[in-house]
Amino acid sequence: VQLQASGGGLVQAGGSLKLSCAASGRTFSGYFMGWFRQAPGKERELLATINWSSGTTYYADSVKGRFTISRVKAKNTVYLQMNSLKPEDTAVYYCAAKFMTSTDYKYWGQGTLVTVSS
Length: 118
Known about the structure:
By secondary structure, this protein is an all-beta fold. It has strands at residues 2-6, 9-12, 17-24, 31-38, 45-51, 57-59, 67-72, 77-82, 91-99, 107-108, 112-117.
């Protein structure tokens, strides 16, 4: 299984970015796909998840109302639309996948850097 994250970059506060995570190597029926981030000196933070089969989503309070997770099954791709970005959103963003009954995310992408300038 491979997850390839892309779409990071430099954006001004208040701006938007859309991250993509292209998944390959298996079908993801029965899996949760998630977006995480890790800022320097901070722990990794779960931002959003989506049930690949049903499309049900979950958001952390820190991004609820600003970020939207989605997936396009035909493209085997998960997205994270990020709006109203803040300097504190600066981090490396990772996509990950786990089977729905698993505790831990097993598959990880390589990360993409998002920098929000003030």
